[in-house]
Specification:
Length: 305
């Protein structure tokens, strides 16, 4: 039994649950903070808060942790200009994810990881994000890059969903209006080529072609079960590839910027029936957000590309 009354087995179970989400949380924190070192601090703080909370009734632990990391990052962004740098407190709670302990482990900063995360969103975007207010940055990153609903973003920034939408919209205009260096134009061209390959493979029933453009750990999210607010999630290239080939072919699909990110829209009778929004890691599709509910489709910012 640890000092806080938590059994070792319980702590190890919590640590394993946390580890399953660590990569996603690190990605969220990096895009929020633009620093791998600070991102690791934010993820570690999320572990502290999880280890001190009762999450037994949390249905969506990934969403809960994303919200926690968002709040931590928001606090860090707000304090950047008002505090001096302080020594990092790396002490973990008893049985928690300290270096060398059982369960989760605080990993050293990896320069390759910095490069990977920067490449996945573009150096220019990270630079532009630094010009946004903390609330704008959080709304844009959580909603546009990770598909977090405005209702959940609103809870993090303590605003209404409508105000959260306005924050993301202002941030989006700033990002889209920024001058894009050649490196990031080349990155976007590669991403559109991946989208083309994805669509071609889906139309032709080419399973291997789909696997070539999907990250092995791809996550596909759709709002199946809209009446209950539930979401359907497919994880893994093989799982999603099989589902994609089993779906009916899209009558007309075309490139579009969906909430500022590369995607496709499916047209039926000249109207958008479905929108797909992609996020990339190393020139492969890592996240696919699929929106089919007419009301949600109508709220998307869709631009021809």
């Amino acid at each position: 039994m640890s000092a806080d009354g938590t059994g070792t087995d319980d702590t190890d179970f919590l640590a394993r649950r946390f580890e399953a989400h660590r990569g996603h949380l690190r990605a969220v924190a990096h895009r929020m903070l633009g620093s791998t070192a600070e991102a690791e601090d934010a993820v570690q703080e999320a572990w502290f808060r999880m280890s001190r909370s009762d999450t037994s009734r949390v249905d969506n632990l990934g969403g809960w942790l994303t919200t926690v990391v968002g709040r931590v990052c928001l606090d860090m962004l707000r304090s950047r200009k008002t505090r001096a740098e302080e020594p990092l407190d790396t002490a973990a709670p008893p049985g928690g994810p300290a270096q060398g302990s059982a369960g989760a482990v605080t990993r050293p900063v990896d320069p390759e990881q910095d490069a990977l995360l920067a490449d996945s969103v573009g150096v220019a975007l990270l630079v532009v994000l630094d010009t946004l207010t903390p609330a704008e940055r959080l709304a844009f990153v959580l909603h546009d890059l990770f598909g977090v609903p405005y209702e959940e973003v609103a809870a993090v920034v303590d605003r209404t969903p409508a105000a959260a939408r306005q924050l993301a919209s202002r941030a989006r205009r700033r990002v889209q209006g920024a001058e894009v260096p050649e490196h990031d134009r080349a990155l976007r061209r590669r991403q559109w080529a991946v989208v083309d390959a994805f669509l071609a493979a889906a139309r032709e029933g080419d399973f291997e072609g789909l696997l070539d453009v999907l990250d092995p750990d791809v996550i596909a999210r759709s709002e199946a079960g809209v009446t209950t607010g539930a979401a359907a999630v497919a994880r893994g290239a093989s799982t999603f590839g099989s589902a994609a080939l089993g779906a009916r072919p899209a009558p007309v699909a075309r490139h579009a910027l969906v909430d500022g990110a590369p995607g496709t829209v499916v047209l039926v009778g000249g109207r958008v029936e479905r929108a797909l929004r992609f996020a990339f890691v190393r020139d492969r599709i890592a996240v696919i957000d699929i929106v089919t509910d007419p009301e949600r489709v109508a709220r998307l910012d869709i631009e021809s590309a």
